[in-house]
Write a structure and sequence with these properties.
Blueprint (H helix, E strand, L loop, with lengths): L1 H19 L5 H16 L2 H7 L2 H14 L1 H17 L11 H12 L7 H5 L6 H5 L1 H10 L1 H24 L4 H15 L15 H6 L4 H5 L1
């Protein structure tokens, strides 16, 4: 209907304005960075728990379309490969088509748009401008959590691509399906993708850990 279309157009315009001129707060980035360190950053247990998201969230979605047996087998294989290479599954790919698909997903930002880097304040680049030394500390402290999320995202993406191709989808459709699975089950944590009421500096601090809840 026209009112819904107008509302959608208005939202798109406001999001475009935010992307073109983001209003990042250095103080908010510092605060969310400290919050991330206090609750998650230095905890190996958090990274290990995060690795269960593939089985808990991605697998049921894939299984709903491809069956539990096939989806489970393919996702288990890609997760094993991603873990074995420390989040560099590309090294295990021998199929040229899968390599090309991975590069497309990588260029689109689907692989490394993680919650760890968003919570640590280093995803948007404002932290680096504010304090390069602090940015290096936060990047280092978020490394375990970030790597766990990379494993989840690339395992989900490659598994989804393989399943889509085996189901007869074209290359482009399979890549889009893989992107949808990554962002639909591992989520897009970029600030531009947050609900607008969560984008301001104050809201980023108050709702620091709620982007995951929104995704779920």
């Amino acid at each position: 209907s026209a009112p819904k279309a107008d509302a959608l157009l208005s939202e798109l315009k406001k999001r475009h304005e935010w992307i073109m001129a983001p209003k990042d707060s250095k103080l908010a980035s510092m605060a969310t960075g400290i919050g991330f360190l206090y609750y998650l950053g230095a905890s190996p247990a958090s990274a290990l728990v995060n690795l269960t998201q593939g089985a808990q969230v991605t697998l049921p979605v894939l299984a709903g379309e491809h069956g539990w047996g096939k989806a489970g087998s393919v996702l288990a294989a890609t997760t094993s490969a991603a873990l074995r290479t420390g989040g560099n599954i590309y090294r295990t790919l021998s199929n040229d088509e899968e390599k090309r698909a991975y590069r497309v997903l990588e260029r689109r930002g689907d692989i490394d748009r993680t919650n760890a880097h968003t919570l640590a304040g280093v995803a948007e680049g404002s932290m680096l401008a504010a304090n390069p030394a602090w940015s290096k500390v936060m990047t280092g402290m978020s490394w375990m959590f970030h790597k766990a999320e990379i494993v989840n995202r690339e395992a989900a993406g490659v598994a989804a691509f393989r399943l889509a191709r085996s189901a007869g989808k074209s290359f482009n459709d399979a890549v889009q399906y893989a992107s949808d699975i990554i962002n639909g089950t591992q989520f897009d944590y970029s600030n531009a993708n947050r609900p607008r009421f969560m984008q301001s500096g104050t809201a980023k601090v108050l709702f620091q850990f709620k982007n995951y809840s929104v995704g779920m």
